[in-house]
Each structure stands twice: as structure tokens, then as C-alpha cells.
Amino acid sequence: MTTTPEATMTRGPRVRPAARTSAGRTGTARWFDICSYAALTPERGACAMVDGTQVAIFRAFDGSLYALSNLDPFSGAYVLSRGILGTRDGVPTVASPMYKQVFDLRTGACLDDPRVALPAFPVRRAGDRVEVALPDEHRQ
User: Fold this and answer.
1) What is the pTM of this model?
2) Domains of the chain as residue ranges with CATH
């Protein structure tokens, strides 16, 4: 996947470049504006380039938001935003489109291999906007 310095989504409308919100720094994390809430299709992922990090953002049917690294650790491809959402034993999940490993959307833990976990990022709805926080030290 070729990326540009601007924030982009793999599906749906193009989003604005990520930028620090008026809240600025929160502890050791920075919040970035990603897109409007309405731009996220329920049960579909979107990918945004956030300060040099590809983040997969998901909106569940119940309206919950989740953000994980877009990098599939098993294949090395940036494809997790194209995964299939579901649940396992009541846990919201995404299955990688590559080799089908399943990850907990809340924590990033791989439910098929407990030794593997994806970075999970704080995500929030601020009015009609979706924001993701990245720790200052996190860069891909």
C-alpha cells in the first residue's frame, strides 16, 4: 500500500490530514482529528495515517469506536483496516484479511496466539469528529 503524508482512508471518503486538536497533549499522548463520525461505515474499517503511523479505525454497529495498528504482525502487510469485524465469546474482534488471525478490538491481543498483540490506541468521539491519541514515543 502506498501512502502519502496526508491522512487517508482505505474505504469511503477522504479525510482531512491528521492534526493536533485544541486539547493538545494529554499526559504523554497527543490527540489527532481523523474524520467525521458519519464518514465511518458501521462494521467496516478505515485506515488513517496519523503522525507517520497507520491506524485502523473501526465503528461497530452499536456505535463503539476502536483503533488498532493497521499492521498485520503475521504477514507484515498494512491491511487490518480491511479485516472482518465480529465477536468471539462476547469480545469485539477483527479478523485479519491475510491469514485470518483474530484480534480483540479493545486491547489488540491476538485471540489465536496469546504471544502476539497489536498496539491499541485511545479513540473518542468529539462532537461529530473522531479523534485518536498516539503516545509521543509511538512511530512506525
Assistant:
1) 0.79
2) 20-135 (2.102.10.10)
